[in-house]
Amino acid sequence: MKKSKSVTGHLNIAGESRRKLSLCFYLFFCYLVLTAQETGEISSNRFKFSGTIGLNSNGISRVPAFSLGKPAIMGFFSLRKNRFSFDPEVAYSTEGNPWFMNSCFRYRILAKKNFGVVVSANWSISHRYTEVIENGLTKTIAKAERYVVFEFVPTYKLSEKFSLGSAVFVGRGFDKGSLKQMHFISLVGNITKLRLSEKLYCSFFPQVFYLNLDGDTDSLFVSGVAGIGHKKFPLFLSTQMNQPMVTSISPNPGFSWNVGMTYTF
């Protein structure tokens, strides 16, 4: 018997409407990208618009313990004026299904030459898909989960190419069956634009992070991104790897990795 699939939404807003709304949001920011490229950078005494758009073989989130498990298109955008910025983030599978949408508001408490501190509040919607079998037919259950996350991110610049950063996230979920609490603490090294040749450079971003879910699930991970870029083209070819060292997450997330290409503007 041929199996059929259907999608069931768990929010009052229909799943198809959510998809159209998020797609319109994504297209709107693509329009801003094209506008910015045509008119140049927005005046420095007003707003500055920037961002990255990437395609990778396996979507890995900003908390690397979580991955999509399939290829993803991810966009990170920033509209900034002085110390304030609005930084939306969107991610889709290459099949067109939404993965997450973040609306992040950031404020730079300190912006010194070698030291900075950023705090932020992030309203996030994450989509989860589960396959179940009912009456011999496979159905895909789509669930949108809402979270709010507060972030504290200090960074210390050692030189033009080396810096150390940390990130502390405290999150809370609002929907039944979603995570109720999340605590994330990381230490990140930023080693950027090391010369490989006259035109090529490489960058490395090693990371160690601790993750606690709902107060009773602890994990320690090592993660990192390494890639190669071209000085005259805003493209960055990279790979990301993530390995739990100690974890009580069930099932064990295990080793994850991807390969991706990112365009920066």
Verbal overview:
With 265 residues, the protein is mainly beta. The protein has one domain (43-127, 149-264): Porin (Beta Barrel), CATH 2.40.160.40. It contains one helix and 13 strands. It has one helix spanning 15-39; strands at 7-8, 48-56, 72-81, 84-93, 98-111, 115-134, 137-157, 162-173, 181-195, 200-213, 217-230, 233-247, 256-264. Strands 2-3-4-5-6-7-8-9-10-11-12-13 form a twelve-stranded antiparallel beta barrel. The longest helix has 25 residues, at 15-39. It is globular, with a radius of gyration of 20 Å. It starts with 6 loop residues before the first strand and ends with a strand. The relative contact order is 0.14. Residues 1-15 and 35-43 have low confidence and may be disordered.
Topology:
Layout: E1 7-8, H1 15-39, E2 48-56, E3 72-81, E4 84-93, E5 98-111, E6 115-134, E7 137-157, E8 162-173, E9 181-195, E10 200-213, E11 217-230, E12 233-247, E13 256-264
Parallel strand pairs: 1-7
Antiparallel strand pairs: 2-3, 2-13, 3-4, 4-5, 5-6, 6-7, 7-8, 8-9, 9-10, 10-11, 11-12, 12-13
